[in-house]
Amino acid sequence: MSVTILTAYDERPDGPGEFVYRAGGTDLQERMRTTGATPHVLDLTGVPGFAGIDRTEAGTTIGAGTTVATLARDLATDYPALALTAAGLATPQVRATATLGGNLLQRTRCWYFRHPHTTCFKSGGDSCPARDGRHLYGVAFDTAPCVHPHPSSLAMVLLTYAATVDTTQRSGLAVGDVLGDGSDPRRDHLLADDEVLTRVTLPPPAAGERAAYFRSISRFEAEWPLVEAVVRVVRDGAGTVTSCGLAIGGVAPVPLRLDALEDLVTGSMLDDDTVAAAAAGASAGASPLPETGYKVALVEATVREVLERVRG
Ligand SMILES: Cc1cc2nc3c(=O)[nH]c(=O)nc-3n(C[C@H](O)[C@H](O)[C@H](O)COP(=O)(O)OP(=O)(O)OC[C@H]3O[C@@H](n4cnc5c(N)ncnc54)[C@H](O)[C@@H]3O)c2cc1C
Ligand code: SF4
């Protein structure tokens, strides 16, 4: 394998598609190994300002090169939902290296996509072999031509904060603007080939926020979740929920923010009836594939779990 490693200060090869960016490399290097691809690699690490957390009264700005482990450690008090999700994904080794930007822009984990001898929409083909083939870890909300769920746990939790994203070409993008809705099956994100994600901005911390994150998983760790959910709530002195953010991942072409259930929970005391209604509602609109029917019950159980955890 012949790979050219460039730094951000080197002259780039001409034209989009001639190089790929590398942050932590935990996704990119694995794809290069499994597919045998040998692109020019443009290393983003070391670029001034690429990593770091900046708190102001207007909000908190996180450099795209900030590691997942840093998010888990440094944001536990101010943004507990983000910190818990960061702490819950992958392994300590991956979290120490993987970056916020790389997490949002990582490619699908579908085994057809990562196989060196199969093609699909996402690798230059014109079909989805998983749809008629094996899709045990596929979507339960079949809303797009690609039937593998988006892999980013951090995208899921950032939806609940209505976080915005800046790139070298655009600013103030919603996470949904970065990931799209899955309608273009070739893409896992909508940034241009030569566009660098530079930072993510969160609103100011919500005083008294409590959060819970839970992943239903096929083994203890070092695995993407079958279904994951995160919730963040603020309650007043009487225990009434005054604001709620709730999202799920592992089940659709992009993570899903459950706005209707946020409205259901807001104004409630998070009593048993509310938790049961929200859990039951979490699977509304599900349209599982032949092998993913099991995820419908898991969605409900996972949402129930985070709501029970967050109410303490
Ligand atoms: C065992 C295991 C379990 C895992 N479980 C989970 C999980 O549960 N949830 C989860 O979310 N993730 C999980 N991951 C994936 C892991 O979180 C990602 O590999 C990691 O976040 C990618 O970050 P990185 O900095 O290493 O990205 P890289 O590998 O460097 O890059 C990933 C992609 O993004 C592009 N890129 C990176 N940064 C930028 C930027 N700033 N601007 C433009 N393009 C950029 C690269 O070109 C590449 O295509 C798991 C990984 C492993 C190995
Ligand atoms: S599910 Fe998506 S990534 Fe997997 S084969 Fe189909 S199009 Fe490709």
Summarize the structure.
With 312 residues, this protein is of the alpha+beta class. The chain is built from 11 helices and 12 strands.
Description:
The chain has a five-stranded antiparallel sheet. It has a four-stranded antiparallel sheet with strand order 9-10-11-12, sandwiched between helices. The protein has a three-stranded parallel sheet with strand order 1-3-2, with no helix packed on it. The protein has a single domain, classed as CO dehydrogenase flavoprotein, C-terminal domain (Enolase-like, domain 1, 2-Layer Sandwich). The protein has helices spanning 28-35, 68-74, 80-88, 92-97, 100-105, 129-132, 153-160, 175-179, 259-265, 272-281, 294-311; strands at 5-7, 19-22, 40-43, 53-56, 59-63, 164-167, 173-174, 197-202, 210-216, 227-235, 241-249, 256-257. It has eleven helices and twelve strands. The chain has 312 residues and is an alpha+beta fold. The chain is 28% helix and 19% strand. 44% of the residues are buried. A hairpin with a 5-residue loop joins β10 (227-235) and β11. α3 (80-88) runs antiparallel to α7. The protein binds flavin-adenine dinucleotide (FAD) and iron/sulfur cluster. Flavin-adenine dinucleotide (FAD) is lined by residues 20-28, 44, 64, 89-91, 94, 97-99, 101-103, 105-107, 151-154, 196-197, 222, 224-225.
Helix/strand-derived class? Answer: alpha+beta
Mean of residue pLDDT values? 93
CATH topology annotation: Enolase-like, domain 1
Strand fraction band? 15-25%
Small molecules held by this entry:
flavin-adenine dinucleotide, iron/sulfur cluster
Name given to the CATH architecture: 2-Layer Sandwich
Compute the number of helices.
11
Please name the fourth-level CATH homologous superfamily: CO dehydrogenase flavoprotein, C-terminal domain
Which segments are poorly predicted (pLDDT under 50) over 5 or more consecutive residues?
1-16
Major beta-sheet overview? 5 strands, antiparallel
**According to CATH, what is the class?**
Alpha Beta
Q: Summarize the helix and strand pattern as letters.
A: EEHEEEHHHHHHEEHEEEEEHHH
Taking the alpha carbons of the first and last residues, their distance comes to 53 Å
> Shape from CA axes?
globular
CA-atom Rg in angstroms = 19 Å
Number of domain units = 1
Strand neighbour order, sheet with most strands: 4-5-8-6-7
